[in-house]
Amino acid sequence: VQLQASGGGLVQAGGSLSLSCAASGMRFSINDMSWYRQGPVNERELVARVTRGGSTYYPDSVKGRFTVSRDNAKNSIILQMNNLKPDDTAVYYCNAAVRRHALSPKYDYDYDVWGQGTQVTVSS
Fold first, then answer.
1. 69 DSSP β-pair partners
2. What is the pLDDT of residues 12-39, one digit of tens each?
């Protein structure tokens, strides 16, 4: 399974950006899908998560500004980022908790997949 992320770019503070991520492959399903980010001096942190059932989670740093949505049929998620701040500058990574389906369910296995990362830069 591969994740392809798109979007990002340069925006002024207070602006908006949208990030998209789509999974492709064969014989798989996805549980949680998430966006993480890593700034130049920070560890990678979770910024949004959506379960297969549509439940979402956001840390306080982005709550009320970021919205994640999911299309299970397309195995894709979108992160809508509004009222961006310079502190949001980072490389954003898409993540998926994948279940690979074998011919026999007893051989199914779970693993994490990461997208390639996309740069978001917010100028003050």
1. 78
2. 999 999 999 999 998 899 999 999 999 9
